[in-house]
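protien #1 (seq + structre)
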Amino acid sequence: MIALFAIVADLCAAPPESATADTQESAAYSRAGDEAIETGDLRIATIAYRKAVAFDPANDHARQALAALCQPDDGALLAAIARFREGDLDRAHTELTAIVARDSTSAGAHLFLGLIALGRHDGALAERELALASTNSAYAAVAGEMQRFARREGRLTVVALVAPEIDTNPQLVPDTPPLGATAGSPTPDEALLLATTVTVRPTPWLVLRDGLAWHDQRKLSSLTFLGENAQAAIERDHHANHAAVRYDLDLDWLGGAQYLVAHRGTASYRRDFSGFALAGTYSVRHRAYQQLAQADFTGWVYSGDESVLVHATPRVDLEIKTIGWREVTVDPAFSALAGGAQVMLRGRPMAGTRAAFGASSYYARYDGAEPDGLLRRDLHGEITADLDVDLSDHWIAIASASLIGNRSTVEDFRYWKLVARLGLELAFGGP
C-alpha cells in the first residue's frame, strides 16, 4: 500500500507532459481514466488523465479528475481504495465511511461506497452513494454507468428473458444422459426460449432463487423442454475471503412428460488479491431419470474446479479454470472419468455493453465397454460468445452463440451442435 502511495505521488509530482494537440486522443485517455477509476486502479487512472491533459489542456474533465486523484484526503482515500482492490470490503467500507464523516463531499469515497453496496446487492444504497459521487465530474461517467446496475439490484431481483433461437441439433436436450446419444441424423429446428429468475435475499447471507425456462420447439414438439431450478444458498464474506454453500433442485419435463429429478450440493471459496482472485468449487449431484428409456443413466456426479481470475485491464477479466468430474451410473457403459480446462474472457467494450468469449475442452473415458466390446473415449470441445447491450435502465438486448463438438471412439456419440440466440431481457430489483 505504501508503494501505491509512492507511485501516485510520483506521478502527480512529475512535470506536465507535452504532446501534439489531439482532442480525440485526449477523449480516449479520459475514458481510459474513468474505467481505471471504476476498478480502483489509481496508477492507471493518473497516467491516463495526465495523457488526456497533455493532448488537450482544455479537457476540463481530465484536469479535474487528475486534481481529485492528486489531492486525496491525506492518503486515507488511497488506503481505502487499496483495501477495495484487495477484496477486503469490510475494512474498505469502514475507512470510506470515516472519510465521508469528515468530508461529506468526498466523491471518491461515495463512489467506492456505492460499488461496495452494489457488490452486496443493496441497490437502493448503491444508487444513493453513486448519485453523490456523480456530482464530481471526475467520477460522473463511472457513477452514471454503475447507477444503471444499482437499479437492477436489491433484496428482490427479477430477470425475464424472451429469445428466439436456432438449434442445429435439438435432440441433445439439457442433461442428455450420455452426451450425444441420439438416433439418426440431427434435425435443425427453431425454438422460442422464455425464462425467468426470481432472487430473494431475506438477509445478507441467505439467497433464495427460482428459475424457470421453457424451450418451445417449432417443429419437434416432442422435444419441447420445461426446466425448473430452485436454489438455496448461504454466502459469507470475511475480508478478502468469500465462501458459499448451495443446494439445487432440478425438475425437468420433456415433451410434456417428467424427465429428470436432480439434487445437487455445492461448496465454493474465493480469495481476492489485488488484481486477481483464486477460487475453487466442489459439488455432488444425484440425477434420477424418470422415464424407462433413460433409467440406466441414473446416478451420481462428483465434480470440482479450480480457477484463477485475472483483472487484465480495468474493463477486461480473464478466467482460466481446470475442471474434472466422476460420473457413476446404473449402466457402467455410461460411468465416466473426465477432465479438462476452460478459458473465459469477459469485458466491456464500451459503456453499456458486456461481452464474453469462452472456450473449453475435456477428455472422458468410460468404465464399461459397449455391446460390441468397444471402449468409449470422448474428446469434447465448446466455444461460446455472448453480448449484452443496455437499452435502458431495465431493458437489455442479448445475443449469444455456442458451437459444440464431440469426437468419440463410438460413432453414435460423434456430433456437432450450433445454437444461436437473439432476445430481450428485463431486469429490475428492489427495495
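ok now protien #2
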Amino acid sequence: MALTRDFKSTIIERVQRDPEFAKVMLDEAVTLFLNGEADTARLMLRDLVNATIGFEALADATGRPSKSLQRMLSASGNPGMDNLAAILGAVRKTLKVDFEVHAVQVA
C-alpha cells in the first residue's frame, strides 16, 4: 500500500524548510498573474499565504477581513488590483524580497 501525503501539508513543510522555495512560489504566482493565468496564480498565492504569513496576520497587514482575503484567493475569487497589491506587498515583506521586472521580447 502506497503512502500519500496531503499536498497542502507538503507545501507548508517545504516552505518552512526552504525559504528559497517560498520565494520561487511568489515569483511564479506573480508571473502567472502577469501572463493571464489568474486562476492558478490565486491558488498558488493562497498556498503561499497559508505556508507563511497566514490569513489572520495577512488581514492585520492589509486591513482587510481574513474571510474576504480567503475568498479573494479561492478558485472563484476576484481580487481587485488594490487588494492584490496589498496581498503581494504583505507576502513580499514577510519573505523579505523585492520585485524586479524583466521584459522579454517575443518574436
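The first helix runs from residue 7 to 17.
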